[in-house]
């Protein structure tokens, strides 16, 4: 089981004879234009079900999701993490083997899902991060503030925990068993970095795979404004240092993730 590093996927990832239960979780907020594109691009032969968490949309995102066969749950409390946590509570009623997290803005390529889950299916990892910085990017897709923030967070994670990541990208896969052990709590912008920090603290096998990235449909709720960028940056750094302070104050909890 790997602890960091890059998994270079095979050119063609073949559908295994026995496919584990793979569920896709998509948090959305006013994504009626992009969501149909995302749902249509998911390779359905690979997944058991697709769950869309409507995080208080004022448009027809939920309607668009149902039209394309997705299951819809509602989380009125705004926040990326809050939506993910609501989705996981829903999945817990019939847990999958693997959860794939995917944004609803069509910036990622859902067709690349097989390469994201491949290391898990081959027993090489429990957590796979789709790295946008290692993959092909449309020019201008990753804004400068996002690039700088990701780089800083990843450098700090390596210094603090010894795990080398290149991105905090939302397109990721994790085994249900490993995810339960992380005891995720963040309800906002710190969700992705919390997952990676707790995986490092627990010594969970984690790798990155290169994924493609393009300009999203619509304006980002996070990096699309200076206020959103500032809040996200603060939350990510706060999560990093809070988790590190917890570990330093109680070294015996390094193997745990209940903070």
From TrEMBL:
One of its GO terms (molecular function) is transferase activity. Residues 24-135 form the Glycosyltransferase 2-like domain. It comes from the Bacteria. The keyword Transferase applies. Transmembrane segments: none annotated. Keywords: Transferase. The keyword Transferase applies. It holds the Pfam family Glycos_transf_2. This is Glycosyltransferase family 2 protein. It comes from Lujinxingia vulgaris.
């Amino acid at each position: 089981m790997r602890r960091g590093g890059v998994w270079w996927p095979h050119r063609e990832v073949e559908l295994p004879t026995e496919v584990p239960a793979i569920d896709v979780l998509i948090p959305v907020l006013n994504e009626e234009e992009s969501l149909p594109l995302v749902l249509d691009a998911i390779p359905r032969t690979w997944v058991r079900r697709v769950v869309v968490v409507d995080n208080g949309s004022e448009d027809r995102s939920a309607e668009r999701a149902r039209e394309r066969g997705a299951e819809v749950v509602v989380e009125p409390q705004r926040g990326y993490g809050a939506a993910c946590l609501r989705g996981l509570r829903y999945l817990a009623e019939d847990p999958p083997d693997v959860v794939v997290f995917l944004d609803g803005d069509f910036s990622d390529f859902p067709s690349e899902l097989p390469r994201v889950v491949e290391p898990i299916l081959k027993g090489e990892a429990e957590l796979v991060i789709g790295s946008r910085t290692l993959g092909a990017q449309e020019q201008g897709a990753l804004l400068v503030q996002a690039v700088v923030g990701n780089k800083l967070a990843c450098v700090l994670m390596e210094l603090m925990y010894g795990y080398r990541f290149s991105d905090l990208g939302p397109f990721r896969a994790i085994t249900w068993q490993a995810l339960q052990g992380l005891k995720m709590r963040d309800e906002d912008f710190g969700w992705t970095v919390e997952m990676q920090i707790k995986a490092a603290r627990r010594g969970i096998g984690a790798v990155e795979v290169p994924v493609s990235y393009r300009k999203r449909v619509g304006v980002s709720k996070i990096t699309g404004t200076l206020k959103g960028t500032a809040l996200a940056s603060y939350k990510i750094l706060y999560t990093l240092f809070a988790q590190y302070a917890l570990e330093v104050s109680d070294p015996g909890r390094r193997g745990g993730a209940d903070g």
